[in-house]
Amino acid sequence: MSGEIAKAFARARSRAEGVLVGYAMAGDPNIERSVEVFAALVEGGADIVEVGVAFSDPIADGPVIQAASERALRAGATLRRVLDEVIPPLRQRFPETPLVIMTYVNVVLALGEARYAKLARERGVAGTILPDLPPEESESLRATFDAEGLDLIPLCAPTTSAARAQAIAKDARGFVYCVSVAGVTGMRAELPPDLSERLELVRRVSPVPVVAGFGISNEEQARTLASHADGVVVGSALVRAANADGPAAAKRLCADIKRGLKR
Amino acid sequence: MKSETVAGRFGRYGGRYVPETLVPALLELEEAYAAARADPTFGEEVSRVLREFVGRPTVLTPAHRLTESWGGATVWLKREDLAHTGAHKINNTVGQVLLARRMGKRRVIAETGAGQHGVATATACALFGLSCEVFMGALDVERQALNVFRMRALGAVVRPVESGSRTLKDAMNEAMRVWVSQVRDTYYVIGSAAGPHPYPTIVRDFQSIIGREIRAQTQAAIGRLPDAIIACVGGGSNAIGALHPFIEDASVRLVGVEAAGHGLQSGQHGASLTLGTEGVLHGSRSLVLQDENGQIQEAHSISAGLDYPGVGPELAHLATTGRMEVRTATDDEALAAFYEVARTEGILPALETSHAFAAARALAQDMGRGTHLVINCSGRGDKDVATISARGVPAAVGVKA
Question: Is the pLDDT of residue A204 over 80?
């Protein structure tokens, strides 16, 4: 484990806040501008930055992130370029903020599992989220990541049984990403009524922090979840804000959501 | 040789690379399918519907004039084009829709490229009274108007998919996204021998009726197994169905034919077994057309059914281990074969099937007289008449002007 992620949760806890994991798409609209968007997320209060790396066939993503992926691919974003041109400047400006890569498993396989783990760690990436890599398929990759000290962050879903959630949490590195809704990424007006119960269930058995993601886009939702989870992930809403109104808009949204996370 | 090494794995290929939300549904499906397989009444019902509704067994036609014209192996045609709805796709949809009903799912979704699997799913849903939604790339909706109408006439909702390349690959992405959000009451009928475990196994099992019939029919006709079987390969459902029952018969050559599109060097083809590299697409590890950064490339073929950048994991394994030989045919070769079969045997094959015919000629000649070659005639060409006729029709034969 990198330990950086645990420190970020500890810092937020000491300030009586939930953690904000802010997501944006690397290379949207181009590599340089996206670095500014990521910086804006941190300046707005994001405790952990999730760096999206585009894939041509993003089956876990809704329309906002699909469109961002297409823009990033047109701008020439690749995993290699993200590691070389996005991660280092962010690392330099925000040495304490853990950077987590989110992409699809094929993108990592194409670079090579071991090569990716080594490069990512060298550049200062703390963890990786692969939404199409369920526990059954993750053993070898987790071992490779463990050897480099890169956290493979697992996901739990609304359809995951309690026993399965327990097994997922037991093997988790960094944090457990609890998917709030059965569906793809994207803003939702309402979150499912049983979400807080499910979060508590995973939290009880998890040795690492538990965050909720998918569908969360505003301060009010963050406030509701703050007492049931260690943090929230906000993605599509930030991607939309950055795309429509620029980095400053994403920064403002982070600050709003962060207010909701104060306990 | 057994191709399934552990459950859902074919050597290096296969597996279940899907969002966690879908894993419990795939586990439920795996369990329900195993229970159905163990229940003789389920198998009997599938057989009854295939007999009474689909028209199975489909015949094995001796292709006398092709045999004579090619001057090599004796050629036989397994006539899946004569199955109800005009292609082999119905074998699988009858089985899966019966499984969906048995599992108590109220809603069925499917993806389709050319529309044959969509039509076959809509047909089975109409037969058993389930609601059906078919996801189809917007580009395919435009170029396959006949099948779009057929699905709608059968009561299905056709949902055009506007993302990505607006073709089969994107339709499959969208079907998976919709499945994620409605997974509790929805059954997803995959038509290719691709996708996450257990789909490649389920599709292969339901399509293997083709190969089992070929076995029985060649035994009856020539008193032995054929020397070779050839089938076109897109995702691979007709190929795995025709070939799988022969994997352990070392004397039978198994041959798959991929779309070479504008040529293997053109970068515009669907030859994932020939030129693909190992990767993960649509839930399984297999051979895929991708760039060095792991981005999936757009495939090209004149036939929408072969216009897919991946291939089923079991076929990838059979090709990698050498059990299946892989050949290719270009758009132009497939078109030429279409007319050759039409005018020599009185059959309009689907453009997908025409690829198998295009490669069969050299194979038959190579095999020589006294040997027997079965071509899996996977579908009929009615759906393709607009594509084909747009390129002009060659002059009639044997009629004086």
Answer: yes
Q: For position B2, what pLDDT does the model report?
A: 62
E strand or H helix at B195: none
Q: How confident is the model at residue B400 (pLDDT cuts 50, 70, 90)?
A: low
- What does the pLDDT look like over A55-75, one tens digit per residue? 999 999 999 999 999 999 999
List chain B domain ranges: 17-51+89-203, 56-86+208-389
Contact state of A132 with B24 under an 8 Å Cβ cutoff: no
Q: Which of B19, B182, B183 sits opposite A59 (nearest CB)?
A: B19
Interface pTM (ipTM) of the complex?
0.96
- Across B48-76, b (16+ Cβ under 10 Å) vs e yields ebbeeebebbbebbbbeebbeebebbbbb
- Residue A32 is predicted with a pLDDT of 97
Q: Output the CATH code of domain B56-86+208-389.
A: 3.40.50.1100
Write down the domain spans for chain A. 4-153+230-260
Nearest CA in chain A to B184: A159
Residue-wise pLDDT tens digits, B85-97: 999 999 999 999 9
CB contact under 8 A, B294 and A79: yes
Catalytic residue among B78, B89, B105, B383: B89
User: What tens digit of pLDDT does each residue of B299-347 get?
Assistant: 999 998 999 999 999 999 999 999 999 999 999 999 999 999 999 999 9
Q: List Cα–Cα distances, A48 to A23, A24, A215, B205, in angstroms.
A: 9, 12, 18, 47
Residue B240 has pLDDT above 80, yes or no: yes
* Residue B28 falls in the annotated catalytic set: no
Q: Which of A59, A116, A179 to mutate to test the interface with B (most CBs of B within 10 A)?
A: A59
Give the per-residue pLDDT at A2: 64
| DSSP-H helix ranges across A94-161 | 105-111, 113-123, 139-148
Q: Reduced to 3 states, what is the DSSP secondary structure of residue B374?
A: strand
Report helix, strand and coil shares of chain A as percent, to nearest 5. Answer: 50, 15, 35
**Range B275-279 contact pairs with CB under 8 angstroms and sequence separation of 24 or more:** B276/B309, B276/B310, B276/B311, B278/A109, B278/B12, B278/B13, B279/A106, B279/A109, B279/A110
Q: Does the CB of B21 have a partner CB in chain A at under 8 Å?
A: yes
Residue with tokens 């590299």: B277
B392 alpha carbon, distance to own chain's centre: 27
- For residue A29, cis peptide bond before it (omega within 30 degrees of 0): yes
pLDDT tens, B272-291? 999 999 999 999 999 999 99
B56-86+208-389: same fold as B17-51+89-203? yes
What letter represents residue B401's amino acid? A
If you classify domain B17-51+89-203 with CATH, what class do you get? alpha beta
Assign a CATH topology to domain A4-153+230-260.
TIM Barrel (3.20.20)
Q: Contact, A153 vs A172, CB < 8 A? A: yes
What pLDDT sits at residue B399? 66
| B386's tokens | 């607009």
Assess whether B89 carries a catalytic annotation: yes
